[in-house]
């Protein structure tokens, strides 16, 4: 029980010391008059990054604007770099443009860079165009199949026979074409 009394005694002393210190600080605040003017020994031309008495911090505002601008610039740069394969395939009119675009989207949403690299390589490679020649062959075969045999033989008979041949060579050639 003796120890509890001592603690209470010390608590009372600490509280009294804190109150006395608080009174001294309040008294010193009343005696000193805080003014907006600079001390005579202070330099009169302060640099721009020193905050003013009103609390405005020019350096913080400038750095905040710089940070926002840098983040927007870096985001734009990243987006342009990310869409590079798609723009390459679109610019050169590649047949695999849709595949490159899908690989770019997969890369964007999964963060797996291998899809972006695959899209870039696919955008650089020229795949051969098998569709156009096959379509041309199919169109030609369709025109041959739709042609009527009588119209073609009439046009052939209207042509004069070559000078070295007698008229006997033309009907044999005509027969060959009718059976084809």
Can you describe this structure?
By secondary structure, the protein is mainly alpha-helical. It has a domain at 77-132. It has helices spanning 2-31, 58-82, 84-91, 97-110, 113-124, 131-146, 149-158, 169-179. Helix 7 runs antiparallel to helix 8. It is rod-shaped, with a radius of gyration of 47 Å.
Short description:
The chain is mainly alpha-helical and 180 residues long. Helices cover 70% and strands 0% of the residues. The chain starts with a helix and ends with a helix.
Q: Largest sheet, if any? A: none
- In percent terms, what proportion of residues is strand? under 5%
Distance between the termini: 128 Å
Overall pLDDT confidence: 75
Number of strands: 0
Query: So what's the overall shape?
Result: rod-shaped
Blueprint of the fold:
Elements: H1 2-31, H2 58-82, H3 84-91, H4 97-110, H5 113-124, H6 131-146, H7 149-158, H8 169-179
From the structure above, extract its key features.
180 residues
């Amino acid at each position: 029980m003796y120890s509890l009394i001592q603690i209470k005694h010390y608590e009372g002393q600490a509280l009294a010391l804190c109150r006395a210190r608080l009174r001294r600080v309040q008294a010193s605040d009343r005696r000193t008059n805080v003014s907006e003017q600079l001390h005579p020994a202070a330099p009169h031309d302060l640099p721009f990054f020193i905050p003013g008495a009103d609390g405005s911090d020019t350096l913080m505002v400038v750095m905040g604007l710089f940070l926002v601008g840098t983040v927007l610039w870096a985001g734009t740069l990243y987006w342009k770099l990310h869409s590079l394969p798609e723009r390459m395939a679109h610019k050169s009119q590649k047949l695999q443009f849709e595949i490159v675009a899908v690989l770019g989207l997969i890369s964007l949403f999964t963060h797996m860079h291998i899809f972006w690299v695959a899209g870039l390589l696919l955008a650089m490679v020229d795949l051969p165009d098998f569709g156009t020649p096959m379509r041309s062959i199919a169109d030609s075969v369709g025109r041959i199949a739709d042609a009527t045999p009588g119209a073609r033989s009439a046009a052939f008979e209207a042509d004069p026979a070559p000078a070295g041949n007698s008229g006997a060579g033309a009907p044999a050639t005509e027969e060959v074409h009718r059976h084809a």
